[in-house]
Amino acid sequence: MRDLSMDAGFLKELQRILGRKKPPTLPRVFVDGRYIGGTDEVRQLHEMGELKKYIKRFPGG
């Protein structure tokens, strides 16, 4: 997890990854370096039973 309030470099990195100039809405979820989505996308993955595919290899997943 990265806290954007602790390092402005994280915000610039996130803007570069997402291809946006304006600040993104948060949270933005990455699993093992892969962008999964924001709140709505993660909720939808969970409701469809797909989120577990992304986290099953992690402790508690």
From TrEMBL:
PROSITE patterns: GLUTAREDOXIN_2 (PS51354). It comes from the Eukaryota. Signal peptide: none annotated. This is Glutaredoxin domain-containing protein. It comes from Nelumbo nucifera. The lineage of its organism: Eukaryota, Viridiplantae, Streptophyta, Embryophyta, Tracheophyta.
